[in-house]
Amino acid sequence: MAPVSPTVARWELVLRLRELREQRGFDSATFAKQIGFTAANWSHVEKGRRVLTTNTIGPVLEILEVDAEEREELLALLASSKQRGWWAKSSALIGPELQRLYGMEYGAQSIRSYDSLIVPGLLQTEDYARALISADVMIRPVQVEQLVTIRMRRQARLRGPERVELTAVVGEGTLLQQTGGPKVLRAQLEHLVALSEDSDSIEIRVIPFTATAGAILGGSSFHLLDFAGEQLPTFGWAESAVFGGAVDDPDLVRDLAFAYVRAREQSLSREDSLAVIRSYSRV
C-alpha cells in the first residue's frame, strides 16, 4: 500500500464530488448557486484550486444526498487533504505544478516512465542530479544543492514497506550521454545495476539502438502514475525543454499509455537490459 498523500486525497475528493454532481443532474453553475458559491468559486473547487472546509462541505454533501458510508469516506479525504506533505514545505523552491507531481508520486501505487536521454529523477544519484540541475540556466547556483536534496527526498518511495512499483523505459543513448562526465555517469550506471539487482519493485528496460522503431517517441519524457484507489484514474506528466506539467486531458493520458506500451515493446527484457547497463558501467 502507498502512504496517504494530501495531494492524492484532495484529487480523489474533487473527482468524486464532481462525479456525484453530474450523476445528480446538476450543471456546475446551478449547483454552485444551490450551495451558496459563485460559479467561479465552485469551478476552482472542482479544478483543485480551492479547498473545501468542514463547514463548506456540509451543504455540498446534503444537496448531493450522499449516504452515511460515502459521507464518512469523503470527510476522511477532506481531513487527509488538510495535511501538509513534505513537498509543500519546499514551496519557495518548487512551484505548484512540481508540488502536485511530488504529492502524486508520494501517494502512487505504481509509476511507469519513459525517458530518451536522461535517467528519471527517482533513479538518479546525487552527482548525476546535481549535474542536470546545475546545467539549467533558469536555476540560480544557490538553489542547486537545495533542489538536489529535494530530488533525493522523492526517492524515499523506493524503499521501505510502502515502496512504489517503478518501471522505467530509457533509450540506450541514456547510458552513453556523458551527463556530469565519465565518472558521474559510471557511478550512475552502477547505481542502476544495484537498484535492479536489489529490488523486485524496480524494473529498468532499455530500448537498444538496434530497435527498428526505437526513435518513435523522439526526445520526449513522460510519466504515468497509478493509485490503489479504484476511483482514481491514471495521472499523467510530460516534460520537454521548456515545459513540464500535468496532463489533465483523459484522452491525452490514454495516448501516453499507448505510447508507453509501444516503447516497452521496443525495449529489451529486464535481464537483457540489466546486462547492457552493466556492460556500459564497466567502460
Automatic annotation (TrEMBL):
InterPro entries noted in UniProt: Cro/C1-type_HTH (IPR001387), DUF5753 (IPR043917), Lambda_DNA-bd_dom_sf (IPR010982)
Protein name: Scr1 family TA system antitoxin-like transcriptional regulator
Signal peptide residue numbers: none
Gene3D superfamilies tied to this protein: lambda repressor-like DNA-binding domains
Pfam family, one: DUF5753
Domain HTH cro/C1-type: 17-71
Organism of this sequence: Nocardia aurea
SMART domains to which the protein is assigned, alphabetical: HTH_XRE
